[in-house]
Amino acid sequence: EAQVTQNPRYLITVTGKKLTVTCSQNMNHEYMSWYRQDPGLGLRQIYYSMNVEVTDKGDVPEGYKVSRKEKRNFPLILESPSPNQTSLYFCASTSSGESSYEQYFGPGTRLTVT
Amino acid sequence: AQSVAQPEDQVNVAEGNPLTVKCTYSVSGNPYLFWYVQYPNRGLQFLLKYITGDNLVKGSYGFEAEFNKSQTSFHLKKPSALVSDSALYFCAVSPYSGYALNFGKGTSLLVTP
Lengths: 114, 113
Description:
The complex is a heterodimer of chains A (114) and B (113). Helix content of chain A is 0%, strand content 51%. With 114 residues, chain A is an all-beta fold. At the A-B interface, β5, β9 and β10 of A face β5, β6 and β11 of B.
């Protein structure tokens, strides 16, 4: 089954404690991205990756890092989380070819930073 | 700069009636337009897209959308709403390609029996 998985699904942490949210896709997609969803603001892109070792900033990259060492994995790293990073996070991968540009989203990670 | 506006925070419709969820966009270049749906506690799911060709595009679950270049709109429609259509709907746009999407704030659709 084609899917994007994220872990953990829920995370409560304290300010300053480094954390990583993992994302993996099994569709061999080259393009992957991270979004955060906040009420009244919709989805905003944090970072994206066009391929292995190619990443770039989205609209709200401050406080986040990513890496793309393998095609299937695209982890999101918060080196020193702050309360304003409390949000719902989605990883997505994007198809090419006949299903061009359809984004497949993971189930989301609800992060609370206290 | 690209942007998407969904002017209605919530749309209420009775089951069996037609529904419309509005979306207008601003982008330089030819727009790539998308609709996604989010059910409670789930990720977003692709509904339909417009890249080129026929202005009326059909998608999943009986939804369709009409691209109107002069009005820069891409409204989502369905002839007969179901209670199960109740969800959060997002319009998204990208210039030149379908990768770097800019999402609207979302419209909550409530279909009542």
